[in-house]
Amino acid sequence: MSPPPARLDVTAVIVTCNRLEKLRLTLQATLAQAFARVIVINNASNDGTEAYLRGLEDERLEIVHEPVNTGGAGGFKRGFSLAVKGEATEWLVCFDDDAFPAPDALDRFTALRPDADVGGVAAAVYFPDGRICPMNRPGMNIFHSPRRLLKAALNRSGTIGLGDAAYAGTEPVSVAFSSFVGLFVRCALVRGTLGLPRADLFIYRDDSLYTLSLTRAGYRLLFAPGVRFVHDCSTPSSGSRVYKPLWKAYYIIRNDMPFFRMLSGPHFFLILPFLIGKFLITVPYYDNPVLFLRLLCTALSDGLRGNFTKLHKDVVRRFS
Questions:
Q1: Mean pLDDT, residues 33-54 taken together
Q2: Single pTM value for the model
Q3: Cβ atoms of 37 and 63 closer than 8 Å
Q4: Is residue 268 exposed (0-12), middle (13-18) or buried (19+ Cβ within 10 Å)?
Q5: What is the pLDDT of residues 56-71, one digit of tens each?
């Protein structure tokens, strides 16, 4: 019998903000596996998270208590920067405080032994009840060829997300981008070619843009169906078309602009009306349609002009 593969040095990066009960489960599942380090970025939580984290005893833990909430994007930027300080760290894996690895996730990742041209590996992410989590589906670049674009346009069930068949398979599949839930990244690329994620996005699409930059740089991003994560979340993509609280819609609309511009390239202004239409059809579902329309115009303007300077407190004040 051949010996098991040598374990890779993997650091887990978790970002949390005011979800203490979910964080407890996340850390329990994470610390039960042989991660070399577990970095927790506490984004100014005020629900007892700081006291809970200070009470934990595990030499692998590295905890940062941020004085202000920098959003998921800012938290992951900080976490990535700490993860790659140690030259021995080969890989990092990132996820939110409401997500956690399956019991064998690290072992299954180790068994993959990714080739040198693989810059990232995206896990298969499921809801606790076993359904595929739609917001964490890795995506394909449908703009890569006219044939793929036409096929996607005729597919009513979706255009860029990976299909269910890939989840049912056993072999890794190359994808164009993925989320930050269960994403393994080669640390050498973070130290060099890729750098750190963008903090100015605050929330949403920081992961899509980062992983799309990885594949555009010539590295492969693999979806590994055997490496599983659980995401205990509730989002518009899991049933509702409406973002609550309302200010969240500002970030997804604004940040969609640079993402789809990068993904579609010269096709961007051809698809822009469809992107805008996707949000316009949700207007009747909001409690305050006029305020949502004002938000939509502001977010589109900022995203198209590349203005990512608004402070989060101002976004909340204007669109709450």
A1: 97
A2: 0.92
A3: no
A4: middle
A5: 999 999 999 999 999 9
Distance of alpha carbon 60 from alpha carbon 38, whole angstroms: 6
pLDDT at 226 over 90: yes
What contacts 65, CB < 8 A, 6 or more positions away? 42, 44, 50, 53
Q: In this structure, what are the phi and psi dihedrals at residue 94, rounded to the nearest 5 degrees?
A: -120, 150
Task: Report the alpha-carbon distance of residue 11 to residue 61 in Å, rounded.
Answer: 10
Closest-CA residue to 143 (of 135, 130, 152): 152
- The pLDDT score that the predictor gives to residue 156 is 45
Percent of the residues in the chain that have a pLDDT greater than 90, as a whole number: 85
What band does 236 get if pLDDT is binned at 50, 70 and 90? low
Give mean pLDDT, residues 84-110.
Answer: 95
